[in-house]
From TrEMBL:
It comes from Desulfarculus baarsii (strain ATCC 33931 / DSM 2075 / LMG 7858 / VKM B-1802 / 2st14). Residues 1-145 form the Ferritin-like diiron domain. Pfam families: Ferritin. Belongs to the ferritin family. Prokaryotic subfamily. One of its GO terms (biological process) is intracellular iron ion homeostasis. It catalyses: 4 Fe(2+) + O2 + 6 H2O = 4 iron(III) oxide-hydroxide + 12 H(+). Its main location: cytoplasm. SUPFAM superfamilies: Ferritin-like. One of its GO terms (molecular function) is ferric iron binding. Its EC number is 1.16.3.2. Iron-storage protein. This is Ferritin.
């Protein structure tokens, strides 16, 4: 049985992951409006990943005898100054999510909740990947900033991203 403090914290994290999915979907819509289908696709894949993160927490909470309590999802912004600004927000957002995951880990360690510590290890590693992915795109956007056609070429690269459902999770 999961402790009440961890149950409440995981419920907050489920909301944060759902917001992340919603944010990236909003970014995808904005990028589609700019006629950047590759960037929009990248964001839709990211939105799918965030939804699976929410579902991983959801399944874990239920598996530990906890009760999921869904709350309203905050509305995300709908436009950004540029594709670079959009991805800079992705990087900042992922840093915030990393801090939330680290907070969950601190709570699990304090409560000596070894099952949650074990589960959260996956998210710790995932956040390293999430932050690196955003930083990579930002680096590429900065590289092509002064070239004609660079954004077009990068947009084609972004379209190659794929989503693979984790084998241990079903939605």
């Amino acid at each position: 049985m999961i402790g009440k403090a961890m149950e409440a914290a995981i419920n907050k994290q489920i909301n944060a992951e759902l917001y992340s999915s919603y944010l990236y979907l909003a970014m995808s819509a904005w990028l589609d409006g700019l006629q950047l289908p590759g960037f929009a696709h990248w964001m839709r894949v990211q939105a799918q990943e965030e939804m699976t993160h929410a579902m991983r927490f959801y399944a874990y909470l239920g598996g530990r005898g906890g009760q999921t309590a869904l709350e309203a999802i905050q509305a995300p912004p709908g436009q950004w100054a540029s594709p670079l600004a959009c991805f800079e927000e992705v990087a900042a957002h992922e840093a915030k999510v990393t801090a939330l995951i680290n907070g969950l880990m601190d709570l699990a360690l304090e409560a000596r909740d070894h099952a949650s510590v074990n589960m959260l290890q996956w998210f710790i590693a995932e956040q390293v990947e999430e932050e690196a992915s955003a930083a990579e795109v930002i680096g590429k956007l900065k590289l092509v900033a002064q070239t004609h056609g660079g954004l077009f070429m990068l947009d084609k690269d972004m379209a190659a991203r794929t989503f693979v459902m984790p084998p241990d999770l079903t939605i």
